[in-house]
Amino acid sequence: MEMMMVIGLIAALLMGMTLGVFGAGGSILTVPILVFLMGVSASEATAYSLFIVGVTAVFGAYTYYKQDLIQFKIGFVFAIPAFIGVYTVRLFLMPSLPEHIASFGRYDLSKDALVLIVFSLIMIMAAYAMIKPSKVQTSGEPKALNYSLIAIEGLIVGAVTGFVGAGGGFLIIPALVILAGLNMKQAVGTSLMIIAFKSLLGFVGDIQAGLVVDWILLFEIVGLSIIGVLVGERIARKVDGNKLKPAFGYFVLLMGLAILVREIV
Protein backbone atom coordinates (compact mmCIF):
# COMPACT_ATOMS: atom_id res chain seq x y z
CA MET A 1 0.00 0.00 0.00
CA GLU A 2 2.82 2.40 0.84
CA MET A 3 4.42 1.66 -2.54
CA MET A 4 1.14 2.51 -4.28
CA MET A 5 1.00 5.79 -2.36
CA VAL A 6 4.52 6.69 -3.50
CA ILE A 7 3.59 5.84 -7.09
CA GLY A 8 0.47 7.98 -6.67
CA LEU A 9 2.49 10.99 -5.49
CA ILE A 10 4.89 10.57 -8.42
CA ALA A 11 1.84 10.40 -10.71
CA ALA A 12 0.55 13.66 -9.19
CA LEU A 13 3.87 15.31 -10.09
CA LEU A 14 3.57 13.97 -13.65
CA MET A 15 -0.04 15.14 -13.82
CA GLY A 16 1.10 18.67 -12.99
CA MET A 17 3.83 18.45 -15.63
CA THR A 18 1.23 17.38 -18.17
CA LEU A 19 -0.92 20.40 -17.28
CA GLY A 20 2.11 22.68 -17.59
CA VAL A 21 3.08 21.31 -21.02
CA PHE A 22 -0.38 21.21 -22.61
CA GLY A 23 -2.08 24.06 -20.76
CA ALA A 24 -5.10 21.80 -20.11
CA GLY A 25 -6.10 18.17 -19.84
CA GLY A 26 -3.89 17.14 -16.92
CA SER A 27 -6.72 17.37 -14.42
CA ILE A 28 -8.51 14.50 -16.17
CA LEU A 29 -5.89 12.21 -14.56
CA THR A 30 -6.56 13.36 -10.99
CA VAL A 31 -9.51 11.07 -10.18
CA PRO A 32 -7.85 7.88 -11.56
CA ILE A 33 -4.70 8.67 -9.56
CA LEU A 34 -6.73 9.12 -6.35
CA VAL A 35 -8.91 6.05 -6.87
CA PHE A 36 -6.56 3.46 -8.32
CA LEU A 37 -3.24 4.47 -6.76
CA MET A 38 -4.21 6.07 -3.44
CA GLY A 39 -7.27 4.04 -2.49
CA VAL A 40 -9.67 6.98 -2.22
CA SER A 41 -13.33 6.19 -2.97
CA ALA A 42 -14.67 7.54 -6.27
CA SER A 43 -17.11 9.98 -4.66
CA GLU A 44 -14.42 11.36 -2.32
CA ALA A 45 -11.94 11.49 -5.22
CA THR A 46 -14.23 13.79 -7.20
CA ALA A 47 -14.34 16.15 -4.21
CA TYR A 48 -10.57 16.08 -3.72
CA SER A 49 -10.13 16.61 -7.45
CA LEU A 50 -12.16 19.82 -7.30
CA PHE A 51 -9.73 21.26 -4.75
CA ILE A 52 -6.62 20.04 -6.60
CA VAL A 53 -7.87 21.27 -9.98
CA GLY A 54 -9.03 24.58 -8.50
CA VAL A 55 -5.73 25.43 -6.79
CA THR A 56 -3.70 24.37 -9.84
CA ALA A 57 -5.95 26.47 -12.09
CA VAL A 58 -5.30 29.52 -9.87
CA PHE A 59 -1.58 29.26 -10.60
CA GLY A 60 -2.23 28.74 -14.30
CA ALA A 61 -4.69 31.64 -14.46
CA TYR A 62 -2.19 33.99 -12.77
CA THR A 63 0.27 33.36 -15.61
CA TYR A 64 -2.36 34.46 -18.14
CA TYR A 65 -3.45 37.38 -15.95
CA LYS A 66 0.07 38.81 -16.07
CA GLN A 67 -0.23 38.77 -19.87
CA ASP A 68 -3.66 40.49 -19.74
CA LEU A 69 -5.31 37.45 -21.33
CA ILE A 70 -8.26 37.00 -18.95
CA GLN A 71 -11.65 38.52 -19.84
CA PHE A 72 -13.14 38.82 -16.36
CA LYS A 73 -16.59 40.11 -17.37
CA ILE A 74 -17.19 37.26 -19.81
CA GLY A 75 -15.58 34.82 -17.37
CA PHE A 76 -17.98 35.65 -14.56
CA VAL A 77 -21.01 35.51 -16.88
CA PHE A 78 -19.99 31.89 -17.49
CA ALA A 79 -18.59 31.13 -14.03
CA ILE A 80 -21.61 32.10 -11.92
CA PRO A 81 -24.06 29.59 -13.47
CA ALA A 82 -21.21 27.05 -13.61
CA PHE A 83 -20.67 27.54 -9.88
CA ILE A 84 -24.42 27.09 -9.25
CA GLY A 85 -24.26 23.81 -11.18
CA VAL A 86 -21.22 22.38 -9.39
CA TYR A 87 -22.22 23.65 -5.93
CA THR A 88 -25.74 22.21 -6.22
CA VAL A 89 -24.44 18.82 -7.36
CA ARG A 90 -21.82 18.62 -4.59
CA LEU A 91 -24.06 19.84 -1.75
CA PHE A 92 -27.34 18.11 -2.65
CA LEU A 93 -27.06 15.46 -5.40
CA MET A 94 -23.89 13.59 -4.40
CA PRO A 95 -24.78 13.12 -0.69
CA SER A 96 -28.32 11.99 -1.63
CA LEU A 97 -27.22 9.26 -4.06
CA PRO A 98 -27.58 5.82 -2.44
CA GLU A 99 -24.58 3.52 -2.31
CA HIS A 100 -26.56 0.97 -4.35
CA ILE A 101 -28.08 2.52 -7.49
CA ALA A 102 -29.61 -0.41 -9.37
CA SER A 103 -29.26 -4.08 -10.30
CA PHE A 104 -29.11 -5.49 -13.82
CA GLY A 105 -29.22 -9.26 -13.52
CA ARG A 106 -26.02 -10.22 -11.69
CA TYR A 107 -24.54 -6.75 -12.09
CA ASP A 108 -24.96 -4.34 -9.18
CA LEU A 109 -24.42 -0.67 -10.04
CA SER A 110 -22.97 1.14 -7.02
CA LYS A 111 -22.58 4.87 -6.51
CA ASP A 112 -18.80 4.71 -7.01
CA ALA A 113 -19.21 2.60 -10.15
CA LEU A 114 -21.68 5.11 -11.60
CA VAL A 115 -19.26 7.97 -10.92
CA LEU A 116 -16.39 6.11 -12.59
CA ILE A 117 -18.50 5.11 -15.59
CA VAL A 118 -19.59 8.71 -16.18
CA PHE A 119 -16.01 9.86 -15.58
CA SER A 120 -14.66 7.36 -18.12
CA LEU A 121 -17.10 8.71 -20.72
CA ILE A 122 -15.89 12.26 -19.98
CA MET A 123 -12.30 11.03 -20.40
CA ILE A 124 -13.18 9.59 -23.80
CA MET A 125 -14.78 12.88 -24.85
CA ALA A 126 -11.75 14.84 -23.63
CA ALA A 127 -9.43 12.45 -25.48
CA TYR A 128 -11.39 12.99 -28.69
CA ALA A 129 -11.04 16.78 -28.26
CA MET A 130 -7.24 16.37 -27.86
CA ILE A 131 -6.79 13.96 -30.77
CA LYS A 132 -8.98 15.74 -33.31
CA PRO A 133 -7.46 18.94 -34.78
CA SER A 134 -9.42 21.96 -33.57
CA LYS A 135 -11.71 23.55 -36.16
CA VAL A 136 -12.87 26.30 -33.83
CA GLN A 137 -12.45 29.72 -35.39
CA THR A 138 -10.29 32.06 -33.31
CA SER A 139 -10.99 35.43 -34.89
CA GLY A 140 -10.90 37.25 -31.57
CA GLU A 141 -13.69 39.55 -32.79
CA PRO A 142 -15.89 40.74 -29.89
CA LYS A 143 -19.45 39.44 -30.05
CA ALA A 144 -22.69 40.47 -28.42
CA LEU A 145 -22.95 38.05 -25.52
CA ASN A 146 -25.74 35.52 -25.75
CA TYR A 147 -26.34 35.37 -22.01
CA SER A 148 -28.91 32.58 -22.12
CA LEU A 149 -26.65 30.21 -24.11
CA ILE A 150 -23.63 31.04 -21.94
CA ALA A 151 -25.69 30.44 -18.78
CA ILE A 152 -26.98 27.08 -20.07
CA GLU A 153 -23.46 26.02 -21.09
CA GLY A 154 -22.18 27.13 -17.67
CA LEU A 155 -24.84 25.13 -15.81
CA ILE A 156 -24.12 22.00 -17.85
CA VAL A 157 -20.34 22.27 -17.43
CA GLY A 158 -20.77 23.01 -13.72
CA ALA A 159 -23.01 19.98 -13.19
CA VAL A 160 -20.57 17.73 -15.07
CA THR A 161 -17.66 19.13 -13.05
CA GLY A 162 -19.55 18.57 -9.83
CA PHE A 163 -20.29 14.95 -10.66
CA VAL A 164 -16.91 13.80 -12.00
CA GLY A 165 -14.49 16.33 -10.49
CA ALA A 166 -12.83 17.30 -13.80
CA GLY A 167 -12.24 20.90 -14.81
CA GLY A 168 -14.07 20.74 -18.14
CA GLY A 169 -11.71 23.02 -20.02
CA PHE A 170 -12.28 21.10 -23.24
CA LEU A 171 -15.96 22.15 -23.01
CA ILE A 172 -15.39 25.71 -21.77
CA ILE A 173 -12.77 26.87 -24.30
CA PRO A 174 -14.82 26.21 -27.48
CA ALA A 175 -17.83 27.88 -25.83
CA LEU A 176 -15.81 31.04 -25.06
CA VAL A 177 -14.46 31.17 -28.62
CA ILE A 178 -17.80 30.53 -30.34
CA LEU A 179 -20.21 32.36 -28.00
CA ALA A 180 -18.00 35.27 -26.87
CA GLY A 181 -15.56 35.67 -29.78
CA LEU A 182 -12.40 35.29 -27.68
CA ASN A 183 -9.15 34.26 -29.34
CA MET A 184 -7.63 30.98 -28.20
CA LYS A 185 -5.16 32.45 -25.68
CA GLN A 186 -7.87 34.59 -24.10
CA ALA A 187 -10.19 31.57 -24.01
CA VAL A 188 -7.57 29.41 -22.26
CA GLY A 189 -6.78 32.11 -19.67
CA THR A 190 -10.45 32.88 -19.02
CA SER A 191 -11.21 29.15 -18.84
CA LEU A 192 -8.60 28.68 -16.12
CA MET A 193 -10.17 31.52 -14.12
CA ILE A 194 -13.62 29.90 -14.49
CA ILE A 195 -12.27 26.47 -13.50
CA ALA A 196 -10.55 27.89 -10.40
CA PHE A 197 -13.68 29.79 -9.35
CA LYS A 198 -16.22 27.00 -9.78
CA SER A 199 -14.00 24.16 -8.58
CA LEU A 200 -12.91 25.76 -5.30
CA LEU A 201 -16.39 27.06 -4.47
CA GLY A 202 -17.84 23.68 -5.46
CA PHE A 203 -15.47 22.05 -2.96
CA VAL A 204 -17.07 24.26 -0.30
CA GLY A 205 -20.32 22.39 -1.03
CA ASP A 206 -18.57 19.14 -0.06
CA ILE A 207 -17.35 20.66 3.20
CA GLN A 208 -20.87 21.85 4.00
CA ALA A 209 -22.21 18.39 3.16
CA GLY A 210 -19.95 16.94 5.87
CA LEU A 211 -16.98 15.61 3.88
CA VAL A 212 -14.11 14.49 6.12
CA VAL A 213 -10.95 15.65 4.34
CA ASP A 214 -7.46 14.14 4.58
CA TRP A 215 -5.78 17.55 4.34
CA ILE A 216 -2.24 16.15 4.57
CA LEU A 217 -2.78 13.94 1.52
CA LEU A 218 -4.56 16.76 -0.30
CA PHE A 219 -1.78 19.30 0.24
CA GLU A 220 0.88 16.75 -0.69
CA ILE A 221 -0.83 16.20 -4.04
CA VAL A 222 -1.42 19.92 -4.61
CA GLY A 223 2.20 20.76 -3.80
CA LEU A 224 3.55 18.13 -6.18
CA SER A 225 1.07 19.18 -8.88
CA ILE A 226 2.18 22.81 -8.65
CA ILE A 227 5.84 21.78 -8.86
CA GLY A 228 4.90 19.68 -11.88
CA VAL A 229 3.13 22.65 -13.51
CA LEU A 230 6.21 24.85 -13.08
CA VAL A 231 8.48 22.15 -14.55
CA GLY A 232 6.00 21.53 -17.36
CA GLU A 233 5.90 25.23 -18.26
CA ARG A 234 9.68 25.17 -18.69
CA ILE A 235 9.42 22.09 -20.90
CA ALA A 236 6.68 23.79 -22.94
CA ARG A 237 9.09 26.61 -23.84
CA LYS A 238 11.30 24.09 -25.62
CA VAL A 239 8.69 21.62 -26.91
CA ASP A 240 5.49 22.41 -28.81
CA GLY A 241 2.77 20.96 -26.61
CA ASN A 242 0.27 20.97 -29.50
CA LYS A 243 2.38 18.37 -31.31
CA LEU A 244 2.38 16.11 -28.26
CA LYS A 245 -1.30 16.61 -27.37
CA PRO A 246 -2.69 13.91 -29.75
CA ALA A 247 -0.36 11.31 -28.17
CA PHE A 248 -1.56 12.34 -24.72
CA GLY A 249 -5.12 12.15 -26.06
CA TYR A 250 -4.64 8.52 -27.07
CA PHE A 251 -3.26 7.79 -23.59
CA VAL A 252 -6.34 9.36 -21.97
CA LEU A 253 -8.56 7.43 -24.41
CA LEU A 254 -7.00 4.11 -23.41
CA MET A 255 -7.35 4.97 -19.71
CA GLY A 256 -10.99 5.96 -20.18
CA LEU A 257 -11.78 2.75 -22.04
CA ALA A 258 -9.94 0.67 -19.43
CA ILE A 259 -11.91 2.25 -16.57
CA LEU A 260 -15.20 1.81 -18.48
CA VAL A 261 -14.52 -1.87 -19.18
CA ARG A 262 -13.37 -2.46 -15.59
CA GLU A 263 -16.51 -0.98 -14.08
CA ILE A 264 -18.93 -2.67 -16.48
CA VAL A 265 -17.30 -6.08 -16.89
Provide a descriptive summary of the structure in words:
- Helices cover 77% and strands 3% of the residues.
- By secondary structure, the protein is mostly helical.
- The chain has one domain (2-264).
- α1 crosses α9 (215-238), α3 packs antiparallel against α8 (184-208) and α5 (111-131) runs antiparallel to α10.
- It starts with a helix and ends with a helix.
Write the layout of secondary structure elements.
Elements: H1 2-22, H2 30-37, H3 42-66, H4 72-96, E1 100-104, E2 107-110, H5 111-131, H6 147-164, H7 169-180, H8 184-208, H9 215-238, H10 241-264
Antiparallel strand pairs: 1-2
Provide a brief overview of the structure.
This protein has 265 residues and is mainly alpha-helical. The protein has ten helices and two strands; from the N terminus they run ααααββαααααα.
Question: Which key terms come to mind for this protein?
Answer:
265 residues, two-stranded antiparallel ribbon, mainly alpha, globular
